[in-house]
Amino acid sequence: MLEETFSQFRKEFVIIAGPCAVESEEQLMEIAKFISSRGIKFLRGGAFKPRTSPESFQGLGLKGLEILSKAKKEYGLKIVTEVLDTRDVDFVSEYADIIQIGTRNMSNFALLSEVGKTHYSNRHKKYEQFCFAFGSWKDWKAHII
What we know:
The chain has a single domain (2-144), classed as Alpha-Beta Barrel (TIM Barrel). The protein has a 4-stranded parallel β-sheet with strand order 1-2-3-4, covered by helices on one side. The chain has helices at 2-11, 25-37, 62-75, 89-93, 109-116, 121-144, and strands at residues 16-17, 42-44, 78-82, 98-100. The termini are far apart. Strand 1, helix 2 and strand 2 (42-44) form a beta-alpha-beta unit. The chain contains 6 helices and 4 strands; from the N terminus they run H-E-H-E-H-E-H-E-H-H. The chain is α/β, with parallel strands linked by helices.
């Protein structure tokens, strides 16, 4: 599955589209229908959302993953979603074709290590190295501006 997913990146320009957060089935299915009608093959949506305020919307969790799965089946899309916690890596990887590591977690080495143990490990090593290099560049830039 992983090799098939990433082989598209080598053959064509790939667009990953979708909402920041999966807020409802109606919202996501409408977006999935739209992007698939435009030839986009990757649907991104956050089922778990890290928020500074505990009062803010935190995502739909499992229900959000189930909605993403429904969109995948109905429109033939690959799913990209974020994992926030080491305890959820195996669970989220059952739904995701690509695991997204958000900015807040790029220094969460326990999480990165858990993701590295999944069937995504070979590709994520390259991705993580790029992100860490880019993150270091951003930190450096912040010091001089």
